[in-house]
Amino acid sequence: MNRNGINKRKKVVALVGLAMIMLMFVISIMPLFAQEEEGGEGDKVASKEGKKSMFELFKETGPVGLIILACSITGTALTIQYAVNMTEEKLFPQQLVSQTEELLAAQEIDEAYQLCSANKNYFCNIMAGALERAFGGYEEVRAGLAETSASEKFKLDAKINVLSLIGNLGPLIGLLGTVTGMIASFQVIATLKNPTPKDLATGVYEALVNTTMGLFVAIVFLTATFILKNKVSSLTLKINTTATDIVARTISPEAKKAAQEAQ
Fold it and tell me: Which residue, of 4, 80, 106, 182, has the fewest CB within 10 Å?
């Protein structure tokens, strides 16, 4: 794929990711602004007077709301980055696969190792880890391939797990903000001589905004974690299988014997 095609794909993925985040956010805050349909005229007037804008509700979340917002921004940036970089074109470039196989078929193991070492992607990393142990024979190459692939897979999973961490922390941070907000609200109510249900309800629903934001973070980024992990598992399995086949066709004793006979 040429550079223009890659850049275009990055833009599309970024726009789709941002659109998904915005859509989920709008859906999550819709109940906050729903108006009561039933009741008399006086009830509707009171409802309009008590209604707050999204920005006003966000200001009530305090420092906890800023933490959740920071988590959302960080998670969104990481999701877009991983969606762009963890693709078959990035992890498994076919041109390098073909070049590596041609060099190994010609028994030019050192050149193949140098080629893989000079390119940093999943396929080249596991092949470099395997070929650096070529001095020990075919079995050592297979062992190196298995060890390196496990290490590289762990690195990819560790990156994705950051999204899982953000998704799991979101509701907990939101709950913390809700509890601290309700404590502050009850402290204010305790100082009033004749507190009304409105005094209690206002403080409670303002505190629950933190929980709503936290749940939104969890839904978006735990879903992103699931999708990315499945995608990476499928890709790494395909790459590991291909690398194993290449090694078997070019470095195994049978392959070397066939190459010698052909010469």
Answer: 4
